[in-house]
Amino acid sequence: MEKALAGVKVLDLTQFEAGTSCTQMLGWLGADIIKLESPAHGELGRVTFADKPDVDSFYFLQLNSNKRGITLNLKDDRGRELFFRLVREVDILAENFSLGTLERLGLGYEKLREINPRLIYVTIKGFGTYGPYSSYKSFDMIAQACGGAMSMTGTPETPPIKPGVTVGDTGTGLHAACGVLAAYIQRERTGHGQKVEVAMQDAVVNLARVSMIPTFFTHKAMPRIGNRVPVGNANYCYPCAPGGPNDYVIIFCSTREMWLQLCNAMGRPELTDDPRFASARGRTENSEAIDEIVIEWASRLTKREIMRVLGEAGIACGAVLDSLELLDDPQLKERGMIVPLNHPTRGEFQMLGCPVQMEDSPVEIKAAPLLGQHNHDVYGGMLGLKDSELAELKASGVI
Questions:
Q1: Kind and range of the H or E element at 298?
Q2: What is the pTM of this model?
Q3: Which residues of 209-234 are buried (b: 16+ CB within 10 A; e: fewer)?
Q4: Which ranges of 95-159 does DSSP label H, i.e. alpha helix?
Q5: Hey, which residues are catalytic here?
Q6: Which of 20, 31, 353, 398 has CA 20 to 30 A from 307's CA?
Q7: Residue 229 has pLDDT above 80, yes or no
């Protein structure tokens, strides 16, 4: 079955996470992602969090599935000429280098647009290409700090805390993928490519927009409230058996009906007539009393037991699953989010799958490429270079 983005060619100059997650999503959806790396050492992500020498790190493997890999020295004249030839053949180019890197090499957007007017050029920067912070470098934590996420994470007693997931990196990459797809649809109407730009700070602010709502009418900074939801009913992170560091459940009773269902599920139907809890305001004012009741009940059950009981009762509830539990979660496995893969040097390992499912474009997860693995396929198949030419370019350090 043909994939949704079959035939779309992407030249991928991204590194680390914010850019690679953008191109990975396009690859999952069927685009041909050609990842370009330095022939000397490849992308630094290959050794980030490395656990074995001379084996690509899990960091690299988890972010570069469904891509082909080539090497090219962009500082070499012949390398730049090959790069221009590749640009003529692709639909999309993605990069997240520091501001001005490609321009200093003579490979900036204005030059590439002359070569291929239909090119969609996506650039991901910490603070964009303009504005007072644009020359500053950024990583996930910087974006989370400057995008407001850290200031709203934690409790009143803690300093600002970085959310455990990389919303600054992957959150930005997914925003960029959305922009690329919109530009591609527009190009099909107009015939013209364009530049798509996403700043990491902008992406985090967008993800924080709901949390910021009170600021618009209180004109005060949002406080850190931890896991507390400032409305009535039982809305909190509750400890449960057997009492380990991640033995918690999140219960979110968003309606009066859920509160009544919770009372019955806990075997406490008399609470539905308790005057303290008769109204939403009363439940908010007596939230500590509600928490004590729920904690006493939850302490006798495991988080998965609670999730099953409350889930079947129609109450929003989720077990706090740690990273090891996620890899063995039956729901994720059935939905293809945990995928076993075999890699030439890493061997068998578990890969996280694609969260987007399309009826007519099923995703097949493929292992990330070795450094330069597809040089022959791309340079020979796409540009028509002969084996002898490829051998000479390799010997000269061009590829």
A1: helix 287-298
A2: 0.94
A3: eeeeeeeeeeeeeeebeeeebeebbb
A4: 101-104, 109-115, 140-146
A5: 169
A6: 353
A7: no
* Tokens found for residue 54: 């001379």
Q: Which two tokens stand for residue 127?
A: 């603070």
Which part of the chain is CATH 3.40.50.10540?
9-207+331-395
- According to DSSP, the β-strands at 68-71 and 248-252 are unpaired
pLDDT in tens, 248-282: 999 999 889 999 999 999 999 999 999 999 998 89
The tokens for 393 are: 């370019």
- 3-state class of 62 per DSSP? helix
Q: Where in the chain is the domain with CATH 3.30.1540.10?
A: 235-322
Average pLDDT over residues 127-145: 97
CATH H-level superfamily of 235-322? formyl-coa transferase, domain 3 (3.30.1540.10)
Residue that the structure tokens 């005060």 belong to: 220
**Cβ distance 327 to 350 under 8 Å?**
yes
Q: Determine if residue 52 is left, alpha or beta; phi over 0 gives left, psi from -120 to 50 gives alpha, anything else beta.
A: beta
